[in-house]
Write a structure and sequence with these properties.
Blueprint (H helix, E strand, L loop, with lengths): L5 E5 L3 H4 L1 H6 L2 H6 L4 E4 L5 H12 L3 E6 L1 H11 L9 E6 L5 H5 L6 H10 L2 E11 L4 E4 L2 E5 H9 L8 H14 L5 E6 L3 E12 L21 E7 L3 H13 L8 E6 L1 E6 L5 E3 L2 E4 L7 E14 L1
Parallel strand pairs: 1-2, 1-3, 3-4
Antiparallel strand pairs: 5-6, 5-15, 7-9, 7-13, 8-9, 8-12, 9-10, 10-11, 12-15, 13-14
Length: 305
């Protein structure tokens, strides 16, 4: 049996390696509320393994201390056990984007978010599952981006001097200049079918990605529905025009932006797709993913917020 009822999974490399110092400052708060068993991640997908083991070990609460990628891995671990055995989830935002933390209402200051977890009430949120043409399956919790914003995610890894939102803004400008590919999509959902060329397709459980881009202001992770936005094959100047609109969440009024709702979606494209899930690359350059199926699991995980 675990010593405590809380497992705290820490990614010391979050926020470009700056997270370790913030995490160390949280120890007194953890002890104030009875303590926790700590585990640190040391390689990709390690948080998934730690969260799965925490569920098997009988922990009541698993806290993810890191960025969106850490939460993504933790949720992929928790979703591998039956819902009646799934621990509750807490999120301490110590990453560069922290968009999922924002979506569930966590305080952006790690020490206050930790107090929220120990004193707050749990609520159920929805989680998505992706299956691709290679037979790979993976869960996602905040946003799934295809095309433009996934390439932005790849470019953002190159910027190590700036922090937070500026990382993504610089990566956006680089993507507009150097990457302007618009695959042709055939899309079927439980509500509609359509075909079109798109520079970007984003599926939203939460409303924000990239540390501040308000991709779909109406998306909420506890409403039993996913939203999507698709940007048609527009010119580079028009894409540049849309960026500040996305930052403000006012882009849905433009005819070049398509949006809708779904609980199930199938995607087929005429070429390999660049895909991120919650800021983690699911399909990068040179990987042949051109078909996907997305399914919403309502009330999948309880988060304490």
């Amino acid at each position: 049996m675990p010593k405590h009822s809380v497992k705290l999974i820490v990614n010391p490399n979050a926020d470009l390696g700056r997270a370790w110092h913030q995490i160390a400052d949280l120890r007194p708060i953890v002890e104030e509320f009875g303590g926790a068993d700590w585990s640190g991640t040391v390689y990709p997908t390690h948080a998934t393994e730690l969260a799965l083991q925490a569920a098997h070990d009988g922990y009541d609460l698993v806290i993810s201390a890191g960025g969106d990628g850490t939460v993504h891995e933790v949720i992929n671990g928790l979703m591998q056990v039956p819902v009646n055995q799934r621990p509750r989830l807490g999120v301490v935002p110590i990453g560069s984007g922290n968009d999922f933390s924002y979506a569930i209402g966590m305080n952006p200051k790690p020490e206050l978010a930790l107090r929220q977890i120990f004193t707050g009430q749990p609520k159920w949120i929805d989680v998505g599952l992706v299956e691709d043409n290679r037979g790979r399956k993976e869960y996602w919790d905040n946003a799934l981006g295809i095309g433009f914003d996934a390439i932005v995610t790849i470019h953002s890894r190159k910027f190590t001097i700036v922090r937070g939102f500026l990382i993504y803004l610089f990566a956006v400008l680089q993507t507009i200049i150097f990457n302007h590919d618009a695959p042709h999509f055939d899309i079927k959902t439980d509500r509609e079918d359509f075909s079109m060329e798109m520079l970007m397709l984003v599926l939203c459980n939460g409303g924000r990605e990239g540390g501040g881009f308000k991709v779909h202001p109406n998306a909420k992770p506890d409403d039993g529905i996913f939203h999507y936005i698709g940007v048609k094959h527009v010119s580079r100047p028009m894409m540049l025009r849309l960026i500040p609109e996305v930052m403000n969440g006012t882009h849905l009024r433009f005819p070049q932006v398509r949006n809708g709702q779904f609980t199930q979606m199938s995607i087929r494209a005429d070429r390999p797709l660049i895909i991120h899930m919650d800021g983690e690359i699911f399909s990068g350059f040179g990987v042949d993913v051109h078909e996907m199926k997305i399914t919403l699991f309502p009330n999948a995980i309880q988060v304490v917020a």
